[in-house]
Amino acid sequence: MLLAIDTSAGSSVAVVDGDLVLAENSTEDTMRHAEVIGDMIRQTLDDARVEPRQLDLVVAGMGPGPFTGLRVGIAAARAFALGIGRPVVPAVSHDAVAFDEWSAGVRGAVLVVTDARRREVYWSSYDLTDAGAVRSDGPALCRPDELPYPDFERIDATQIGAGALGRVVRLQRERGEQPEFTEPLYLRSPDVTMPGARKRVTR
């Protein structure tokens, strides 16, 4: 049994047991990640009637996503996992969207697109076959008019479901697959940077 957390596009928390999502709470609000994530974790565990000690691991959505929102979910996942003595498994957030499409019966090449703000988008391409959803390219960042693969079916996602993300990780672990990305997928530098060395004033 696992707890999945994603804040790459809004916020979502889910408890997943095997292929079953026991409980999930989500919001598309992209401005209040830090204010809602703690209550969402508590509420989701209550809804699932699961105690933290019953969990085997915690899944953290690694993006792609904007810096501020994404790091809230990752920090929450790491802190919660540390508190209960369980491992954290990183996962690509777009994989959850592709998995949802695959589960709904979609087959073929699809392009998952999410808002990156600053008039840019994140994208990942997938091949959806009867065997599953396989990422073929990305995640990457570009302007909307620069999106590749114009012939692929485009999926614009405003929410990443933690339930789907948890199910993706369960399948990957069953297949013996290791996480491809272990660091947050910001794909651009943060707005705030450390100041450089002071310039020496000469007279």
Automatic annotation (TrEMBL):
- Highest taxon above the source species: Bacteria
Question: Keyword Magnesium on this protein?
Answer: no
Q: Reply yes or no: does the keyword Acyltransferase apply.
A: yes
> Gene3D superfamilies given for it?
3.30.420.40
Matching InterPro entries, A to Z?
A: ATPase_NBD (IPR043129), Gcp-like_dom (IPR000905), T6A_TsaB (IPR022496)
Q: Which GO molecular function, any one, fits this protein according to its record? A: tRNA N(6)-L-threonylcarbamoyladenine synthase activity
Q: Under the cellular component aspect of Gene Ontology, which terms does the record hold?
A: cytosol
The residues covered by the Gcp-like domain are 31-151
**Protein keywords:** Acyltransferase, Transferase
Q: Which GO terms describe its biological process?
A: tRNA threonylcarbamoyladenosine modification
EC number(s)? 2.3.1.234
Q: Which PANTHER family match?
A: TRNA N6-ADENOSINE THREONYLCARBAMOYLTRANSFERASE (PTHR11735), TRNA THREONYLCARBAMOYLADENOSINE BIOSYNTHESIS PROTEIN TSAB (PTHR11735:SF11)
Q: What is this protein called?
A: tRNA (Adenosine(37)-N6)-threonylcarbamoyltransferase complex dimerization subunit type 1 TsaB
Task: State the organism of origin.
Answer: Herbiconiux oxytropis
